[in-house]
Request: fold
Amino acid sequence: MDSWTGHEVPRLPGAGVPLALFDSARRSVAPTRPVDPATMYVCGITPYDATHLGHAATMLAFDLVQRMWRDAGHRVRYVQNVTDVDDPLLERAARDGEDWVVLAMRETALFREDMEALRIIPPDHYVGAVESIPAIAERVGVLLDRGAGYRLADGTGDVYFDVAAAPRFGYESNLSREQMLVFAAERGGDPQRPGKRDPLDPLLWRGARDGEPAWDGGPLGPGRPGWHIECAVIALGLLGDRIDVQGGGNDLLFPHHECSAAHAEVLTGTGPFAAHYAHAGMIGLNGEKMSKSRGNLVFVSRLRGDGVPPMALRLALISGHYRADRQWTDDTLKTGQQRWHRWREAARSAAGPSGAELLAGVRGRLADDLDTPGALALIDEWADHALAGTGADPQAPTLMAETCDALLGVRLRD
Ligand code: ZN
Reply:
């Protein structure tokens, strides 16, 4: 599948700083230690609706990971999927009387446009579930052959993963079994379904049903893939057996990332699948959780349509720490817009305080688990001085603009 168009990222002077990132499995901030290339897999959208602020915030967090790695001299190999066939997509298409393929194509196109407007560095491989079906079916077959998967005996053709085949199951999310059962039920799993060996066993392959799309699964029979195996197979195929970062929103902690890691580890016989499991917080609206059921999603395309400069939106979204569940209010956006105008003005100053010190400061803040509030505060302070005429470094405004461009992805100069 086509990705979106990227842009030049300026090379900054001096040496970048190694990135430390919170790992959900270890429950602590730990240095990333990528070898060449650094590898990252971020779980993408299920394209049944437009990109909302929560998606954008998640994609921005991992964009900053890539920028920090590049700044530290690493080549980066980045893969993102798009779950272009799954229950929520089919349900939405049925509700609206729309062809599910058309819906998926339209929303994926809009997502690409939003990502490009926000200046998110595109993945090297942007991969759909549908185009990956042959590879997924093959790997599900391997899991079956190894006894790590089993067919349900109800004639549906559904294949499940046996969580008992993954001895470390649970290490990624660190949740109690009770909590896992709750999340499995809330987030697309089916713990109540009769006939499974363990209520937590996730679906690998869904046998064909009347009125649902299905593909040839070879020995599996016709059907379509489960969601967790989709990500595991795409990542293994393009990034290798072990990756540096698996990323997504914190609602993917369980079951999605736990199960995709378990699938990958049983398939490869090694682990952990990811050195870091990194999770971005959720964005709420005016004190409420933003969700499709509440009908209060704020769409990136809507804000763009209202004339909000994408760079102001980007600044507003990174003004909070990526891991925090945080609220979006009118003030969040207003502050982002004000900051964007102020920084642009400061970048046009004749001089400012030391640009090298600013760069070192921003690198240091971002290297510490992507502390964007800290980085933004340093740039705010620099801008105050530049605008007050109290800085003496004539090169600083250019370096400030390049720092914002390369590390924060915020372009200040046209
Ligand atoms: Zn995923």
The chain is about 40% helix and 15% strand. Residues 53-71 form the longest helix (19 residues). The chain has a mean pLDDT of 96. The pocket of zinc ion is lined by residues 43, 231, 256, 260 (CB under 6 Å).
